[in-house]
Amino acid sequence: MRAVRIGLDRLIEVVDVSEPRLDSGHVILRPVACGICGTDLHICQHGFPGTQYPVTPGHEFAGHVVSVGKDVTGLKEGDFVAVNPNVSCGHCEWCLENKPHLCNALTPIGVGCAGAAAELVAVPAKNAFQVRESIGHGEAALIEPLACALHAVESAGGANGVKDRRILVLGAGTMGLLITIICRHFGAAEITVVDPNPGKHAMALSVGVDRALTPGQLGDGERFEVIFEAAGAIPALRQALRHIRKTGLLVQVGVHEVATKVDVLPFTIYDHELRIVGSNSLANQFPAAVDLMHDVAGQAAKLIGDTYSVWDFKTAVQAMAGGTAIKTQLRFD
Fold first, then answer.
1. pLDDT exceeds 90 at position 99
2. Rounded to an integer, what distance in angstroms lies between the CA atom of residue 84 and that of residue 24?
3. In 3D, which of 230, 223, 214 has the Cα closest to residue 248?
4. Ranges for the Alcohol dehydrogenase-like C-terminal domain (predicted)?
5. Residue 138 Cα to chain centre, angstroms
6. Which parts of the chain are beta strand (E)?
């Protein structure tokens, strides 16, 4: 079968490979939609922790079950599913604490093992969740990033943490706008999104933002109760630290380079009783995101922009890196 392959030299090719083996407890899927995100750009450009090159990318995906392995219950051929790409061991300290995204042996599909940019992909059955196909193929492929956004909001206290609060979201990419959609769904009082690219502001407003600003348009004296840094950029993090209200909460969800450093003032953290928390991946939120997508699919669908054939993966990555589309996806014609 055909598959996209990224080599250790970052060369992207379409190659012929053997069909995936059907192991016990696994299913084989035929993907129908797959998103590209910042993780894929890292894998293609300068590496991402845990990547096992050569690798077939693709971790935000949905598809149809084509075969079911031994000991699999609850799934059958033809079922439409979205996939949690985080394959965890199930028995380390983090798995036992219901934090599988921190698993000591985490092997993400599309990073540590073969992903969905292929004609077929094998996944553990426990990672495949049935979805109503009527929500749309692209929307189903957005469930993985929606789960990441939901984890970020849960890190801020969930519905109770954002309801009736003034929210600042830094970054109007997929993650920032999905966080916005969730905060609006949970009853936030006011949501401001800041992004240096004015081309993204109309999209932000269309999904429920009260204000969409460039960094320089945010007033010096404005303070927010909950801030999500979803840009993964040092200027955004610095701005977050300047605009957090006393007793406020900053959720760091944007992915920075491993060695990136930023100055913080410990006295301010102490004096203002600030809370700064990290939000990594999707934690255990995938089932909740499946349910939530059925409620917010109309808003989430607005984020889907450019689509490319999976066999044009290289072109898709280049376009995403240099374009203004919020969510670039692959189709499997």
1. yes
2. 18
3. 223
4. 175-294
5. 14
6. 2-6, 12-16, 26-36, 60-68, 80-83, 86-87, 107-108, 121-124, 128-130, 166-170, 190-194, 211-213, 224-229, 244-252, 275-278, 304-309, 327-331
Q: What is the largest CA-CA distance in the chain?
A: 61
Give the residue among 77, 92, 106 at the shortest CA–CA distance from 283. Answer: 106
Which residue, among 109, 23, 29, 21, has the nearest Cα to 62 in the 3D structure?
Answer: 29
How far apart, in Å, are the Cα atoms of 35 and each of 210, 276, 314, 320?
Answer: 27, 29, 13, 11
pLDDT in tens, 105-141: 999 999 999 999 999 999 999 999 999 999 999 999 9
| Domains observed in the chain | 2-142+303-331 (3.90.180.10), 148-278 (3.40.50.720)
How many angstroms separate the CA atoms of 7 and 72, rounded?
33
Looking at residue 42, its pLDDT comes to 87
Say whether pLDDT at 324 is over 80. Answer: no
Cα gap 59→176, rounded to integer Å: 19
At residue 325, does pLDDT exceed 90?
no
Query: Are 296 and 181 within 8 A, CB to CB?
Result: yes
Q: What is the mean pLDDT of residues 183-201?
A: 97
Q: pTM here?
A: 0.96
d(CA 160, CA 232): 26
Give the pLDDT score at 258.
84
Closest to 46 (Cα-Cα) out of 257, 196, 255, 216: 257
Sign (positive or negative) of CA dihedral 93, 98, 102, 107: positive
